[in-house]
Amino acid sequence: MFANTRDNLLLPNPVACTPLPRRQDKGMLEVQIQLNRGTFELRLGFHLAECGIAVIFGPSGSGKTSLINCIAGLETPDAGHIACHGETCFDSVQGINLPPEKRRLGYVFQDARLFPHLSVRDNLCFGQRFHAGQQPLTAPNIDDVADLLDIGSLLHRRTAHLSGGEKQRVAIGRALLCRPRLMLMDEPLSSLDMNLKEGLLTYIARIPHQRNVPVLYVTHSPQETQALGDSMLLLRHGRLEAQGGVAPTLRKARQMGLLPHTTLGISGAPYETSCLV
């Protein structure tokens, strides 16, 4: 399902610059980019088919957030190509760079970024504004999303009065109501305590199966990776080091010294990383 393309590079550097071949099956996501930010360079390429939840895993500073920001259109690569479900979102050669609102991608940030002066319902309605009057019969409505995320009882509350986990559930619901063809999540559990993390994982896992929306999930947590991932991409220093199934890719991460010998599970109990793979 995946093509390992760590050495398929893009720009004038003549070392190992064989382009990533364009596939004919038009999978869920095709990325081949180079982004330079000071001393940091993100330089990688990969294909994903319909993936359920694909985890982008790596240590801090490996380029995870820069990668999904490029996919979302929040950052512009210096060169390359990005396509989602066969539609080109960015192509430096053809001069294509769709704005974020034209890419039909949902984005859940580390912090919920809700409007504190609005109710939960009004925050959810904000997600629908991009497609007002164009909703197909199969599009989710607020009640559908509230049932999926168990936030029906919160609809009339101001978001300023919600817990961290409740805010993130509302943020996920708002992103789903944008009718995304792909959901991007950038470490959405990073600011939550262990109990809230464990609860929110259940809701995230429902999204591909109950709403038929694939998820690209960024984390540096091996526990979240194992709990959610159907597949995994391993990043380090702006390069794609490995991709494939969660178990073998976590083993690769451990061999590279990217996992501690002992770590904490989602519940907070310590166990050996051998339990992960």
Describe the fold and architecture.
The protein is α/β, with parallel strands linked by helices. The protein has one domain (51-72, 104-276): Rossmann fold (3-Layer(aba) Sandwich). It is built from 7 helices and 13 strands. The protein has helices spanning 64-72, 120-128, 142-149, 164-176, 194-210, 222-228, 246-255, and strands spanning 29-37, 40-48, 53-57, 79-84, 87-91, 96-97, 105-108, 182-186, 215-219, 231-236, 239-244, 262-264, 270-272. The strands form 3 sheets. It has a 6-stranded mixed beta sheet, with helices on both faces. β10 and β11 (239-244) form a beta hairpin. The longest helix has 17 residues, at 194-210. The chain is globular and about 45 Å long. The model is unreliable at 1-25, 132-137 and 266-277 (pLDDT under 50).
Which descriptors would you attach to this protein?
Rossmann fold; disordered N terminus; 6-stranded mixed sheet; 277 residues; 7 helices; 5-stranded antiparallel sheet; single chain; 26% helix; disordered C terminus; alpha/beta
